[in-house]
Amino acid sequence: MGECIIQGFNFKVNSGTTIKFWEHKWLGEESLRAVFPTLYGLSAQKEVMIADMINDQDQNYWKFQFTRVLQPWEEDQLQTLSQLLSVVQLQDDSEDCLQWKWSKDLSFSVKLAYSKWEDQSFLENKELLSLWRNICPPKTELFAWMAVQDCIAAKTVLVRRGVIPGDQATCTFCKSEEESPSHLLLHCHFSWEIWSEIIAWWNLVWICPQSLMQVFHFWSNIRFRNLEKLCWYASYYATIWTIWTSRNESVFKHKVWTVEEIVELVKTRVAIWIKGKYDIKDYSVDDFRCNLAAIRRVRI
Ligand SMILES: [Zn+2]
């Protein structure tokens, strides 16, 4: 099911430093690997990013390396590929991003996502739709939606796909158990403490859910209204998103986190997202973090 929404996304190339030249869909509807399987098979740069393929001095020159000399018909394919690439201009100063191909302006739209899935009978489980609240940045709600279905690149998933060896699946945080999506985002004692701190921030008593979907049920069963309700839902998405992005900083930049640091980040994100989207000017980020009781009384 996670694949369905992924099909709607294309990469928008800017710097080209985070998009894989062969593997990702960034030039048309298919990956270059799918369109030029022979060239991909012969490539000596299968994992390379777009930016690493292009010549710094001359952006029209692409640095292909193959494992043997190409046959004439393969040279023809390379010629075709080069023509396709001739329109590409990298923008060094801005980051690559995702765009949603089913909307007119290519931005991600939750409403369009709904109708698209219903059109294509993608809805195996309507319960999952309740995860879309259109309260937080779409990428964070999308991430939660994928996370409850185990469709995120946690280490056990990467092992299953053959991306990393089986003996490298140890959890980034606790370094003792396997890093499955549900372990990483919920059951790991490190993540569990983060959830518990967020629940304590709300002065609530925590139950013991088995899955992220059950955590969401817990969230949905508490009937808040107005601003309080928006902040409450934002806390769910911000917790999942912040655990994940912190984990990535640990993996890729070797950052070491404390529970407290991540909890503060979650609270700050809730404040920034809600203040930004609902134009809440009378309360500061610190009011959200340190005086949630006052925010909860606000009617909008
Ligand atoms: Zn763990």
TrEMBL record:
Pfam families, A to Z: zf-RVT (PF13966)
Organism per entry: Rhododendron griersonianum
Residue span(s) of domain Reverse transcriptase zinc-binding: 108-195
Highest taxon, organism lineage: Eukaryota
Protein name: Reverse transcriptase zinc-binding domain-containing protein
InterPro entries in the cross-refs: RVT-Znf
